[in-house]
Amino acid sequence: MQTIQRKLSEKKHIALVAHDHRKADLLAWTKQNQAQLANHTLYATGTTGHLLNQETGLDIIQMISGPMGGDQQIGALISECKIDVLVFFWDPLNAVPHDPDVKALLRIASVWNIPMALNRATADFIFSSALIAQSTDIEIPDYQSYINARKIL
Questions:
Q1: Which of 71, 91, 137, 142 is catalytic?
Q2: 144 CB contacts (<8 Å, ≥6 apart)?
Q3: At CA 58, angle to CA 32 and CA 102, rounded to 5?
Q4: Domain architecture of the chain: domains with CATH
Q5: In which element (H, E) is residue 116 found?
Q6: Which residues are annotated as a binding site for substrate?
Q7: Which tens digit of pLDDT belongs to each residue from 11-29?
Q8: Distance (Å, rounded) from C-alpha 17 to C-alpha 78?
Q9: How far apart are CA 71 and CA 103, in angstroms?
Q10: pLDDT (0 to 100) of residue 152
Q11: What is the pTM of this model?
Q12: Is 71 a catalytic residue?
């Protein structure tokens, strides 16, 4: 598939997601990075968003709970180019009933080439990068060219 450039602004749209066994870790990471996160627009799945808002006071746009479709809502926002960074403290050792939704979210974030942290170390690397606070370009699929090519067939 062909690609095009997408400009990420200085103020990123960041999705925060955590499995139950990783919520405390994401909360600790969020508190550690609270001043930096406050400069961006934050989204989260329901339970995680509620916890982070209650404990930090950060303004967070909340989706519904992950098992109820919140992962899919975040994925839809990614595919609409409305999310720039995904921080998902995933628990690979604990099976969850909505595992297909989780895999779909990870897949769509990869397809749309957004920075994605699945653990604290990667989140630290992303948030210590100067690019988190700068405008930058990323390559994304050229969906319009894909659609136009399909019309020919």
A1: 71
A2: none
A3: 80
A4: 13-133+140-152 (3.40.50.1380)
A5: strand 116-117
A6: 19, 23, 45-48, 65-66, 98
A7: 999 999 999 999 999 999 9
A8: 13
A9: 9
A10: 65
A11: 0.93
A12: yes
